[in-house]
Design goal:
It is a single chain. This protein has 7 helices and 34 strands. With 423 residues, the chain is mainly beta. Strands 1, 2, 24, 25 and 26 form a 5-stranded antiparallel sheet that branches. Hemopexin repeats lie at residues 105-157, 203-248.
């Protein structure tokens, strides 16, 4: 498993090997189905007028987790809502007022942001499940005709759910929603079919969350990352949610937030198969979890993701650093580079030109020169396409070919949507 990085000051290439740690699934399925739906409707409605405001840093269990239309995470606990990865709780009915008009909001059973591009009038709506009813919001306004019974909108799905999470294709075979209530239900939007699944390696989810194309099951104040098709949990899980999804003084420091939410441009970006993203800026690298680490190099400029899994420990391979010319067959400096899992080529960006390097070739050369839409500071590729970072913004392309078109995609803010900042 390799990571290739280029030192800005010396024009050399570093290659890192990673040692993966096997993890048993002792948390497993055995304490899953016994949980039932105790986190949901049994909360009752008395909590709605409680004066005790919850503190996310106290290790509380979330009832539901989703993202809003701008990709900002929303965490629900009792009648309260936490917006983003830090900050105090507020009453959920201050943001979603109609929930309280129809039934006193003491809890939310489940929530997700609808991903259904075949139906643009519903795509990106935020969906809530409360007891037997479903609420559909667009830009924080309740859609006409709602609330409706769950059975009317999602036939075959039970009431009083534990959790729910969207699963768009190709992450699932078709645009779907995964529902949790002891058993696992896959609901197909296209056919309305319900398929029962058995996720034997997962704990019971009290809430579920799709973030940056990865899937997380929250149980208590811990979480596990899982495969939405099989329920398999790979890696060292469960993990503490406050280390990854919350900014708590006990678990992180103020300088982490300042650096993460800085508008200074990134030097490089990549992601591993454990669901973590690494951004490199100056002498530090920033994990999407919560941590900032000093870089052992003066300045990182290039990071290429391999197609294999990555563990926790990274060691420089023998024979490195090397010059970029020696390793990739192209003169430095290089602005960005990335590889996609389905083939063995590294795509190298230099100015407004992109080249391909066949990493399986005995003599590597930069070939297939073509112009791209604009130069980039950093780039990465994943199952959903290519991301180019330029300044404080990034642009997502569904396919590699779209980099060479003239249609400029929507501009997104790095600190807000990649790192969960509130500005």
């Amino acid at each position: 498993v390799t990571r290739m990085t280029k030192d800005f000051s010396t024009d050399q290439l570093f290659s890192l090997t990673s040692t993966a740690v096997e993890h048993g699934h002792e948390h497993g399925h055995e304490h899953g189905h016994e949980h039932g739906h105790e986190h949901g409707h049994e909360h009752g409605h008395a909590d709605n007028h409680s004066s005790a405001v919850p503190d996310r840093c106290q290790g509380i269990e979330m009832d539901a987790v989703t993202v809003n239309e701008d990709g900002i995470p929303y965490f629900f606990h009792s009648g309260f809502l936490f917006k983003g990865f830090h900050g105090a709780a507020e009453r959920a009915n201050e943001t979603f007022t109609e929930l309280d008009e129809h039934q006193h909001l003491g809890h939310v059973d489940a929530a997700f942001r609808l991903h259904y591009e075949d139906h643009p009038t519903e795509h990106n709506n935020i969906i809530f499940f409360l007891d037997t009813q479903i609420f559909s919001y667009y830009q924080h306004k309740l859609e006409g005709g709602y609330p409706k019974n769950i059975s009317e909108v999602y036939p075959g799905i039970p009431d009083h759910l534990d959790a729910a999470v969207e699963c768009p294709k190709p992450e699932c075979e078709e645009d779907s929603v995964i529902f949790f209530k002891g058993e696992i239900f896959h609901f197909n939007f296209k056919t309305k079919a319900v398929e029962m699944k058995e996720f034997t390696s997962m704990p019971n989810c009290t809430s579920a969350f799709r973030f940056m194309e990865h899937y997380y099951c929250f149980h208590g104040h811990n979480f596990s990352k899982f495969d939405p098709k099989t329920g398999e949990v790979h890696g060292r899980y469960p993990k503490e949610a406050r280390d990854f999804f919350m900014r708590c003084s006990k678990f992180s420091h103020d300088h982490v937030e300042r650096e993460r939410c800085s508008r200074a441009h990134l030097d490089a970006i990549t992601a591993d198969n454990e669901g973590d993203m690494f951004a490199f800026r100056g002498q530090s690298f920033i994990s999407r979890r919560t941590s900032i680490h000093p870089s052992p190099f003066l300045r990182w400029r290039l990071v290429v993701k391999s197609s294999s899994g990555v563990g926790e420990n990274h060691t420089l391979l023998d024979g490195y650093p090397k010059t970029v010319k020696e390793e990739l067959g192209i003169e430095g400096p290089i602005d960005s580079a990335f590889s996609c899992d389905e083939h063995q080529h590294v795509h190298v960006v230099k100015g407004q030109l992109m080249y391909d390097v066949d990493m399986a070739a005995s003599e590597r050369n930069a070939t297939n020169e073509r112009s791209i839409m604009f130069p980039s500071d950093a780039a990465m590729c994943g199952p959903r396409g290519v991301t180019l970072v330029k300044g404080n913004h990034f642009y997502h392309f569904d396919t590699l070919k779209l980099l060479f078109s003239r249609a400029v995609p929507e501009r997104h803010q790095v600190s807000l949507e990649l790192f969960g900042c509130d500005h």
